[in-house]
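Obj: model holo form, ligand = ME8.
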Amino acid sequence: MTAERFYVTTPIYYVNDKPHIGHAYTTILADVLARYHRLLGVPTFFLTGTDKHGQKVQRAAEKARMTPQQQADATVVRFQELWRRIAITHDDFIRTTEPRHIQVVQAILQDLYERGEIYRAEYDGWYCVPCERFFMEKDLIEGNCPDCRRPVEKVREANYFFRMSRYQEWLIAYIEQHPRFILPEYRRNETLGFLRKPLQDLCISRPKARLSWGIELPFDREFVCYVWFDALVNYISAVGYRRDPALFARWWPASLHLIGKDILTTHTVYWPTMLKALDLPMPETIFAHGWWVVGQTKMSKSLGNVINPMEMVDRYGPDAFRYFLMAEMVLGQDASFTEEAFARRYNTELANDLGNLLSRWTKMVATYCEGLIPWPAGAEGDEERALREKTVAAARAMREAVAAFRLDQGIGAILAVLREGNRYIEIRKPWELAARGERQTLDGVLYTVGEMLRIVSGLLHPIMPAKMAELRKVLGEEDAPSHFNTLMTWGGLKSGQRIQGGRVLFPRIVAEPKDRTEESGAEPPPAEKPPAGGSQTPAGVRLIEYADFEKVQLRTARILEASPIEKADKLLKLRIRLGSEERTIVAGIARFYRPKELVGKMIVVVANLKPVVLRGVESQGMLLAASAGGTLRLVTIDGDMPDGAPIK
Ligand code: ME8
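Output (holo structure tokens):
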């Protein structure tokens, strides 16, 4: 990646439907890379946008009884709204219906036509509407589109063609000489494999009689431009090609075109040959990432399993969503999305490793240091040195991970630091240092943890900007780090500052749907392994000590109110009274009880469970119920008993 500047693009998305998780993923990835580059002090330009022409959009509009323009305008807002919600920091948003784009496409078409790079000929072949591509009979697989395997349509018509075939040998040589041009390597090989067959010229027109929604060919008004030939040009029209030479010289060639693996050929064959015909330099890297699948299944509208990013963000917040997508997908490979996996990562890594560490630290600084960040006094011991070195190494690892497109590895290095930080507290036991009055050592330990948190908050800032700004506020730091270098040097935390403690950064969540946790509204089973050494019955049940049971506070409670929760047909929100105290709990009992029958019932609740947020409602406890054979009954009290009574 060039060190002087970073120009990153996403595909421009079709506006035939609302955005899904795949669109969100590519855009978040581009955003995270753009944010890291800005942090590294590299001038950055981040482009995204929407693809408004073509048959897909025209057909979606016909179905919705709108004009293509109305359909496109209605959908583009949903993309822009989502990008706002998930904090995307693009520098430009291009739509292919804008004059600045249309003029460039028409100028290119005219130029290539005049130079004989585009010619007219009769076409006879097969056309795939969803892919918007022509195929020869020999390319079809069992009579279907070789890409998406859907049926194709027979087409015979006059059209215009771009002399793509003449660039075949040049393109093969270029790809072979530039190992970073197409990444990952197996995608590069895929393109080279495709180029082993003779390359055809590219049909770049559509007769208006068949498709009117597109950019008119400047030399033949009976035709519009093929949507891909129009769309790919966005990468240069947005940065001033033939319009603003200074802007264009500043940003072109692009550093990185991020795409999904579905659009590899258009980007690694059509686009480079178009650029070559225009005598323009090639983008530095075209990176094709993998596919998000749901569980083991491809996401598709017909299966009804399309993940709506807006719903995920409403439920879990934008930062956790961004984090999960970046941490879970190894760039290049496919990844599976499930809410269970999401909750597992969230609870283990964000709520536990990071959130808990922060609250432990803030509590200790409040208790032992009057809420002021201590001075790094005392000589550095082995444990301190190990944590410092590991933290600074994680910053280096993240910088390398960004350049190598391995964000998952950078995140892994940071998680290792957090786990080490938790272990460090266990080893150094600040509470014992306080009890023994070892002031200097105590200060040093708390400074070490605080400094580690400062660096981690900066390293994770491009991924979770809002949450990390919150964390940094606690530490008395600016919302965002000023430069990546500040994260590579130890000792930046400002001693003497008052910490702004308080809110839980990542309240634990419960996955929806399925699993028993939802039935009872309880916390998910802990992700950590049970402690070693527990004995087991012959049936394999792990036995616990009485002291373990004693940790659970069971109490009687009276249900005062019960109501459904919007968009959660299995959950009910209950207002309960435990003696002098009232609480809200969320329980997965809606399929077994109507709200009305619950009011007045005496139930048993776990009263000392950490609160969790379920569908936006904080649940302050968990009720007990028996469940078997697909039914569920509440545990109640035999006879009269006041609410709030302890159960032993
Ligand atoms: O192809 N997993 O637009 P499009 C990961 N307009 N990413 C996915 C995905 C999934 N399941 N599904 C889609 C177009 N994507 C053209 C692009 S560019 C000049 C023109 C992402 O709306 C991925 O980035 O079909 C993919 O390449 C893009 O959405 C396709 O978006």
